[in-house]
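## tool: complex_structure
## caller: assistant
## args:
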Amino acid sequence: MKVHVNLDVCQGHAKCEDLCPEVFATDAVEGKCVIKDPEVPAGLEEKVRLAVRNCPEGALRVSNAKGSK
Amino acid sequence: MTLHFQPPPPDHVPPELIVDFDFFKIPEGVTDPAEIWHGLIRRGVPKIFYTPHNGGHWVFTDYDDIVEGYRNYEIFSTYQTPVPPIEPFPVMQPQGVDPPEHNVFRRLMAPMFTPVAVRGMVEELEERAKGLIDQFADKGGCDFISDFAAKYPTGTFLFLFGLSEDRLPEFLELAKVFFRSTDPEERAKNVTDIYAVLEILFREKEKNPGNDIASAIVTARDAEGKQHPWQDILNCGFLLFVAGLDTVTNTLAYIWRYLATTPEARQHFRERLDDPDAFLRAIEELFRINSVSNLFRRITHDVEYKGIQFKQNDRVILPNTLANRDPDVFENPNAIDLDRTVNTHVTFGVGPHRCVGSHLAKREVMVSMQEWLRRIPDFQLDPNEPPSGVFGGSVMGFESLKLVW
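## result:
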């Protein structure tokens, strides 16, 4: 599973970082989302999905290798 | 630029969309000011309605429209929006200008309030909270507002701005008038007073810059290497002053009122005192349910939205508390569920003007709860003195909240 952020939409709420700091951080300049590694480590899929659903801007999405969402 | 706010008689407003509603007025016996908004929903008012009170303004009531009001700055501007109108009103930087001009001061502010920056303030915030709590923890009771909730964010503001602590009463008073007064003369004078304070502050910081936000603003340089326009610098200080004080005070008040009456909630948070991540997640629900701000927007041009005709300069109020309890978005919206897993509340707004200080505000609340619950694990509302001085307006809250333990 991969996770992507649209930085034009991200406004730096940092909900993703709060919910799954293993995958998400925020930068020190604008406070926007930084995805440490777009390939979601095994076992963190649920946490990442939850972070995606909690983004108030809808800036995050996940995809998997087969192309489904 | 001078703008003239003579709200036209609402001849473009269909009579069926007019509701008699004054968001400053809390009827006798109402103990939670947010209830005046939720009462509208129970009355079944139109999703978008107009009230002639306070200069006349629209109200959006559901999540989608409130979010649209935040995001669509081409229609819903933040430029000179107060309700009731104050004329002239400062063009707050960056909140009061729309993109792309907005980006200049937003970019200047953003690094000072990122989660990374706020994590660097935690120790200071903890010391401040402890210092205040120490003053009354052994007394068996306090007035939560005057002894803690008002002092804490205002003291933090003084610290961040490199100002002396002994100016606390002066700043508390300025903030109180700004948020509570509906008297046009008093409000206009208050704005002048705040600017006079900021003028002196920034002149001083320009001469002797320190490691504080005021110094960072006044010494910042624009793309051409020049200082930002002086008026913009003052306007940015004005925004930081009005945005981070009363909002945090009353959010704290709402949360303590809830904790005082809900032993399970106190226990829930006590059990997470040593797990900051879990603590932070649980307070999201408190931010959803205790959203004190009602934000204003101004219509940029005559436009039809959702089949309704809006005229240029019409004001719109976006009540966060209504968005946050929209049943189409939140399951069981009126229940406080500290384990709620999906929580896209709009307490800090969304879109380009999303509250730049949100991470600081969250941390102030979190640190306050942690330090308080460590020191005062159980407390109740004073049965002899119920919360009083309930007020509405752009920020809702309580003037007094007596607690005992």
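## assistant note: The CA atoms of residues 1 and 42 of chain A lie 9 Å apart. Helices of chain A lie at 15-19, 45-54. Handing back to user.
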